[in-house]
Amino acid sequence: MIGPGCFSVAMAFKQGGLWMAFFLVFFLGSISTISMHKIVKCSQYLSRLEGNSYLDYGDMAEAAFRNSVYPFLVQHKHKAKYFVNGCLIAFQVGVASVAYVFVVEHIQEILHYFKVGSGLSTTELLLMYTVPTILINFVRSIRAVTFVCMIGNVFIFASIALILEVALLRFIWKIPLGTVEKLKMNLKELFVAEHNWRSLPWVTSFDGVVASAGSLLYSFEGQAMVLPLENKMKHPEDMQGWTGVLTTGKFCTRLKQK
């Protein structure tokens, strides 16, 4: 649920306006949560009809067409499966491409800051990052991927904690900047910056709101993992409910973004 897409939220506030983006975070987050719940409910219902405990996205679309009351839809059940799988591939390629560029650009910034490998171009870093990316994609075990995601989330939360720590020290507790410099040494420029959020308009233009919605939709990027995760759970019913995996995960994601 939590990935590099969370860092697109700041741009969303700039694109859509302060209060419009604030509203869109909760609105789009709620829509995303509802859609995920519907996917899980449909999967569980069709699994009972088919007598199959495992249905991925394409199989679920095929089962839905196969059990339709309209003969026309039944005839196109295989096409529905291929269409959904194609859409899923396009979705994953889009999300992965943005995340891929996101990671490489930040690696390049870190290397330039510490003056290490400054001679490497963006293209060279993209090629170098291709190797670990391909190796990770060969891993088909959800359990193994979960550990990789957990490590990534640790780094994300560590980054957020460092930023919040300096913000508290510098701007809330009014500790002199020299003290922060002693605590953070040469990392001050990475974490201490002026953020004139009061200058943001409440609402921007229509194009800005649309761009903001797109950025926020990218921050809720876990749709493709819902069914694989549910299919691997010992108790799939735990995905549903107010305290289920989906609701809790999406709530934590929205809370972190705010």
Automatic annotation (TrEMBL):
Transmembrane annotation, as ranges: 18-40, 82-104, 116-139, 151-173
Keywords assigned: Membrane, Transmembrane, Transmembrane helix
Membrane topology: Multi-pass membrane protein
Stretches assigned to the Amino acid transporter transmembrane domain: 1-248
Pfam families assigned: Aa_trans
Gene Ontology CC annotations of this record: vacuolar membrane
Record localization: Membrane
GO molecular function: L-amino acid transmembrane transporter activity
Name of the featured protein: Aa_trans domain-containing protein
The organism of origin for this protein: Heligmosomoides polygyrus (Parasitic roundworm)
